[in-house]
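User: Need the bound-state model for zinc ion:
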Amino acid sequence: MALQAIVLGSAAGGGFPQWNCGCPNCERARRGDLPSRTQDSLAISANGSGWFLLNASPDLARQIQQQAALWPRAARHSPIRGVVLTNGDLDHVLGLLLLRENQPLTVYATREVRAGLEQNAMLKTLQRFEGQLVWHALEYGREQELLGPGGEASGIFVRAFAAPGKPPVHLMRGALPSAGDNCGVSVRATGSARLVYASATSAIEPIAGELDGAAALLLDGTFWSETELPSAGLGRANARDMAHLPMSGSGGSLALCRELRIGQRWYTHINNSNPVLDPLSAEHARLQADGWQLAEDGLRLSI
Ligand SMILES: [Zn+2]
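Assistant: Bound-state model below.
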């Protein structure tokens, strides 16, 4: 059985273009010179009828509208069985609230990510009746089959692994950093090869063993360089301050993944400031020379 994956969104938080950004990239996307991108999320299925989301982006309603595979098959129905959350960042969890309207769902998350969400009273809109939201703990290093809200098997097997990260910005005050803040997942269907999704990581070494041998990798492509935001006057934080390893440089993800055995190499979660968004840029050429491509919204993979 093959694992099917659809890239629902390929932009970092804020999307592309970002509503309050007039940088050259965002202006080009607004004019239609560069393809716009919604915020990072993936849909996966082993049978084409039941789907799980890897993260739920604030753009989820638009993403569902763009993908017939996610449309209802009957009155008051959804093929979306549940959501796997890889961290508590708003660009990965706000879409959960869009999945209200009395639809039972399972949510897989670490203890830390769940606790962060449950601090917010709005989550109760997904807990209007017993069994509307069925929580499962994402346990690192253990493969678990994703289950629908009624306990039904999906044929999708997920192994989560800690990826160096941080708590979400809105919880940074008071929350001590923990390995449960951020993870990647290795996903397969029965008998299929592995797809690895790690859309946020500040280092490669600790997760290299998980990336090695992947048939397809969707990796954190937020920034090209460490000082991308301050250099462009778009912010004060460096890439690693935001727990994103940049692509370039001797310690960047291009260099650190070079020796790993990886089939398809895709960057996703691409920030609107990243020069690789211009397909004619020197940075984009360097990425391609290393065998990488940029994921785009709507990209379909069969593993
Ligand atoms: Zn911008």
